Amino acid sequence: WWALRPHLDQAWWWIPASLGSALSPLISIVAQWALLQRHIERAYWWPLLAFLLRYASQFYLNVVGAQFVTLIPLWLLSGAISGWLLVILLRQPLRPADGTEIDQKIKALEKQPKSRGDG
Length: 119
Prior knowledge:
- The chain has 119 residues and is mostly helical.
- The chain has one domain.
- The chain is built from five helices and no strands.
- Helix 2 packs antiparallel against helix 3.
- The chain is rod-shaped and about 70 Å long.
- The termini are far apart.
């Protein structure tokens, strides 16, 4: 018991850190899927960056043996990126069913009668 006590005293931050790391891939995959479904052309790599920041901080904690306090800025940045991505997702209008504006212009050009140059 006494040998485990120092580790149990610090368990209050290991539990949320482990849970956040475990859920990070799922959050990243869901965000990527939402971006693809909504056809947002920009900022598609932000979930990947948030995912990499989360795992870089976990690697830093486990392998390098850093203090937990030094990881707070990385985790805050990762959370901020995820939150910013969510704002982007919620503010973007859904793509129309008949395609983008460029697709509509191409369809309109295809419907026009072809004129021959009878010079």
